[in-house]
Each structure stands twice: as C-alpha cells, then as structure tokens.
C-alpha cells in the first residue's frame, strides 16, 4: 500500500497481489536461509538439547542458545528450563559444538565453535571454524522455521521472525557473527559475556545486510577476566555504529558467568521479542 498515491486501489486484484507478494517474500526468506546452509549437516546433532514448549497453545517461538568454550548444550539446560517456566510458549534448542583442538588450551580437543589462539585482544583472532559454526546455526534456524511455519497464521510473516538466537561467551560471539549475517529476518539476538568476532568484516557486511534492524541485548559482568568487560562494551559500540539498535547491560562484580538478574533481563527481552501469538 502506498501512502503517496491519491488513486484508490481497485479492490480485490490489488489486495490479492499484495497478499501474494507477502507470502512469496516469507517463502523466499526461508529459501535464502536454506541456501546459506547448503549441504551442511552438523556432525553431532544427537547432542542437541531441547526444552519443549509447555503452553496449552503449543510452540509459537524458538530460542537458539549456544554454549561457551568447553561446555555443551546440556550445560545450559538449567538456564533454559528457568526461562521456559516463565515463557511456556517458547521452545529452547541448545546445540553442542563439535570437538576440535583449541590452541589457547595447548591443542587439547574440546567442544568449541572455533579455534582461539589467546586471551589478548579478540579483534585480532582469525576464529578458524566460525563459518562452519555459523552454518550449523543456520541449519537449526531452517529446522525451527519449518516447525513454526504451521503455527504462524499470518502468511506475510517469515517464520524466522519468531526465532531469537544468542549464547554465552564463545557461543555469544558465534551468535553475533551468524545472526547479523543471516539471510532471513530474526526476532532478536542476545550475547551473554560475549564479543564481536571479526568486527571489521562483519561491519562491512552489515552495511548491506537485512538484519542490522534486529534488536540486540548484550549482558556483561564488570569483573570478567576471560572476556573483558571493555571488549564486550566495545563490541556493542561497533554494532551500534553499524546501525544495530539494542541495549548493553552491566552486572557489577560478576565474573565470566551468568546470574539470576541477567537471566531475568534475558527473559524480559525474550518476552518482548517473542510474545505469545494471539489466536
């Protein structure tokens, strides 16, 4: 519908054309996302942890939550269940990263979304393996969007717009990297004790990307010795400069961990971005 036109549209044909265009747009979003995935299939799907929606109305939104270095999806099960009791219409999907040698830990193999060389300025890290992990996130996005397609009565809405992605530490970094390069619209992105990997590369892609309008929540402890508070703040400012709108929350004295106050802030963000669908 054009507000600048003074000519009234001719009833049904104009309405039908607009509706068809919206449906086609929603469908093409999913097709673009499938193209991003290509033939990639995560190597350890069996380790994915899921917390199902318990609302009588069923599943009407999904949260993809990525763990940190050396952890697993199961390590965030308690947090997901805590959020699920407050947001029963949402389904939580917690993938587990594949085992890989991590240079930072003397080459030991452990679950990692990408390789880390050291604890110095993360802007300089090459993050070997992060593009494969981004494809893993896109794979789960496709599967969840397909699940949600049946739930969304409004065919003009892309099913991916009922999905929020995020994570903790390395999982937060991967979520920022993949979420703001995603070919389909998302409801939101969150990063807990995380940072923006490859900031120069991602900022350039954001200039032409469709998801820079996706709201962001970043949370960080002021006493974090692993991912320093200033790294998180600087990452947020870099995303802001690229056009991303969001909120940065600081937790005084919190180290490299999560707290109930932070989870409650995340819960409020999820409730705002993924409210229950009206029947």
Structure overview:
The chain is 37% helix and 16% strand. It is α/β, with parallel strands linked by helices and 279 residues long. Strand 8, helix 6 (229-241) and strand 9 form a beta-alpha-beta unit. Helix 1 (11-37) runs antiparallel to helix 3, helix 2 packs across helix 7 and helix 3 (130-149) packs across helix 4 (170-179). The chain is globular. The chain starts with 10 loop residues before the first helix and ends in a 6-residue tail after the last helix. Residues 1-24 have low confidence and may be disordered.
Protein topology:
Blueprint lengths: L10 H27 L11 E3 L9 E6 L10 H10 L3 E5 L4 E4 L5 E4 L18 H20 L13 E6 L1 H10 L8 E5 L6 H10 L7 E6 L7 H13 L4 E6 L8 H14 L6
Helix pairs in contact: 1-3, 2-7, 3-4
Give a short synopsis of this structure.
By secondary structure, this protein is α/β, with parallel strands linked by helices.
Distance between the termini: 26 Å
Shape: globular
What oligomeric state is this?
Answer: single chain
* Discrete helix count: 7
SSE pattern, N- to C-terminal:
HEEHEEEHEHEHEHEH
Report the sheet-strand fraction. 15-25%
Helix and strand composition category: alpha/beta
- Strands in their spatial order, largest beta sheet: 1-3-2-6-7-8-9
User: Using only CA atoms, what is the Rg?
Assistant: 19 Å
Percent of residues in helices comes to 25-40%
Number of E-state strands: 9
User: The biggest beta sheet, please?
Assistant: 7 strands, mixed
Low-confidence stretches: 1-24
Mean pLDDT: 87
């Amino acid at each position: 519908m054009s507000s600048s036109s003074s000519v009234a549209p001719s009833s049904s044909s104009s309405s039908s054309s607009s509706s068809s265009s919206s449906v086609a747009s929603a469908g093409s979003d999913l097709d673009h996302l499938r193209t991003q995935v290509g033939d990639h299939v995560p190597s350890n799907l069996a380790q994915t942890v899921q917390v199902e929606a318990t609302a009588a109305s069923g599943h009407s939104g999904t949260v993809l939550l990525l763990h940190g270095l050396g952890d697993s999806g199961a390590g965030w099960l308690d947090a997901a269940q805590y959020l699920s009791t407050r947001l029963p219409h949402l389904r939580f999907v917690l993938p587990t990263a594949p085992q890989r040698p991590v240079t930072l830990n003397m080459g030991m193999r452990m679950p990692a979304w990408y390789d880390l060389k050291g604890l110095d300025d993360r802007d300089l890290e090459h993050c070997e393996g992060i593009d494969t992990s981004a494809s893993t996130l896109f794979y789960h996005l496709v599967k969840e969007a397909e699940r949600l397609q049946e739930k969304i009565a409004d065919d003009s809405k892309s099913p991916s717009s009922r999905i929020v992605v995020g994570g903790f530490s390395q999982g937060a970094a991967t979520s920022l990297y993949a979420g703001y390069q995603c070919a389909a619209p998302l409801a939101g992105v969150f990063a807990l004790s995380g940072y923006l990997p490859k900031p120069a590369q991602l900022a350039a892609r954001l200039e032409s990307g469709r998801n820079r309008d996706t709201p962001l929540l970043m949370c960080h402890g002021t006493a974090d010795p692993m991912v320093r508070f200033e790294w998180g703040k600087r990452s947020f400012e870099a995303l802001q400069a690229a056009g991303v709108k969001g909120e940065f929350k600081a937790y005084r004295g919190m180290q490299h961990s999560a707290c109930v106050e932070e989870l409650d802030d995340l819960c409020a963000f999820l409730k705002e971005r993924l409210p229950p669908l009206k029947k």
